[in-house]
């Protein structure tokens, strides 16, 4: 028990135990007007964007959606920010901490095929570090 007591939680708690259901998910083929309506309806500042196979394509924020509309962009995949921060469910949360510190948005959790399966909001990361795992709790 002495060994376990000396190991930081961030080394043994994995992303899968703290991740939540992804917030708003949009499809890359959606028109920006559809995205704007969904984001305003759910009162969110950003959304994950996936393709037709649910593979993560990127992330887009409300201002980018509004700008896309003003430039008559046809589909989100023309303006989505590629390479959003992402981790796998088996990664220790210790590896997520630096990513989280460099982003205002939750970190995307993807499976081995690149499919979006969850997100790690900042609050979930803090709870995981303190030992309060929420195991896929959808409350944000």
TrEMBL record:
Record domain CBS: where: 78-123
InterPro entries associated with the record: ABC_osmolyte_uptake_ATP-bind (IPR051921), CBS_dom (IPR000644), CBS_dom_sf (IPR046342)
SUPFAM superfamilies, per database record: CBS-domain pair
One of the Pfam families matching this protein, by short name: CBS
Stored PANTHER family: GLYCINE BETAINE/PROLINE BETAINE TRANSPORT SYSTEM ATP-BINDING PROTEIN PROV, GLYCINE BETAINE_PROLINE BETAINE TRANSPORT SYSTEM ATP-BINDING PROTEIN PROV
Name of the featured protein: CBS domain-containing protein
Protein species of origin: marine sediment metagenome
């Amino acid at each position: 028990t002495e060994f376990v007591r000396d190991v930081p939680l961030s080394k043994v708690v994995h992303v899968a135990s703290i991740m939540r259901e992804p917030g708003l998910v949009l499809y890359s083929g959606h028109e920006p007007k559809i995205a704007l309506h969904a984001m305003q309806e759910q009162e969110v500042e950003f959304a994950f964007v996936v393709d037709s196979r649910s593979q993560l394509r990127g992330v887009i924020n409300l201002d980018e959606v509004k700008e896309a509309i003003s430039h008559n962009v046809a589909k989100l995949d023309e303006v989505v920010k590629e390479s959003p921060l992402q981790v796998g469910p088996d990664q220790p949360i210790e590896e997520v901490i630096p990513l989280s510190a460099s982003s205002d948005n939750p970190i995307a959790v993807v499976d081995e095929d690149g499919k979006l399966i969850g997100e790690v909001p900042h609050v979930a990361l803090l709870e995981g570090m303190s030992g309060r795992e929420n195991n896929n709790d959808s409350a944000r």
